[in-house]
Model the fold of this input.
Amino acid sequence: MAWHSSSNLCFLKLISYMMDLHWQRLGTGTQSKEVNSTQKHRERCEECTDEVECLKFRQETHGFDYSLLSFLAYFFYFPLYLAGPTLSYNAWRSQVEKPQQTYSSRRLVLYALRLVLAIVLLELSMHFLCLPALANHPANRKLFASLSAYELAISSYCILKWIWLKFLVIWRFFRLWALCDGVEAPENMGRCMSDNYNFEGFWRMWHRAFNQWLVRYLFIPLGGARYKVYNVWAVFLFVAVWHDLSLHLLAWGWGMCLFIVPEVLGKAFINQTRFAAFRQTAAYNWVCAGSAAIYVMLMMVANLVGFSFGLEGLATLWREITEGEGVLLLGKCWLLITICIHILFAWRRVEGKFGYGKGY
Done:
């Protein structure tokens, strides 16, 4: 295998090791502060007990072994070397000394069975659906361009589902391997692709391990939520260049920023106290659902540009949907997605009531 196939993930590991070492040295003289933060975490965390330490606790607690041998072991740890998920040095080193305790043998077996089911679904989709080949292979692009607006809409959704399922199988296979070795990594694909209706929630779940890495080592050092409108540009530029230095990924990265900034500003505006009464009305729910439906459609287009048919395919898609039939189709899709998002709103309330999906 070519060395550059894993260079991106290795680059993240290198930064993680150096930053954790740097923060450990800065905190050497403030041991009491670290002890207080540890106690606060244990008091608030529902997973941590006297015997069990959750992954977030392991990530935030500094170790004391930053030797060259330990770094090389972390750098070349094989279950997470080829495709991740990305795991910080602190969390990895902690689990070398004290293996993960959150996954029992029974839970591991169930996790493996779910992975087998996902693999079967992926095999069936590759056998019966040729849509990814139409969109991704340049020789087949002319066939993709010959589809009608309705066929393009259905194909685009199926292509995104295929991409989601492919990455789910890859990441969960390697995560299961690490779990069997006693090392827990963050779970990517925490939600189904269709169970998202905003940019922040989608990227927090799609590549969750990378998202946590970005928050810890880039977003917070750049100022965190206080400068969110500004530092997301640096974050998504890093993400685009990290994936590959290509025009369509740069367009995807800047497109994410253009879409996420209005979302952040809109949330800040509507969460003001003067709108407290309006937030309790049915009209507010419809405004949120209608806006979320637009964002779902934008997310679909952005991800197809970044990870499927690129800018050339976007030109084909735009040409079809701006004609008479395509405009009508957009209206129908928007209405259908708006109704479906009300179902997601109800499901979020169920999650909050029974404690499902915490951290997602």
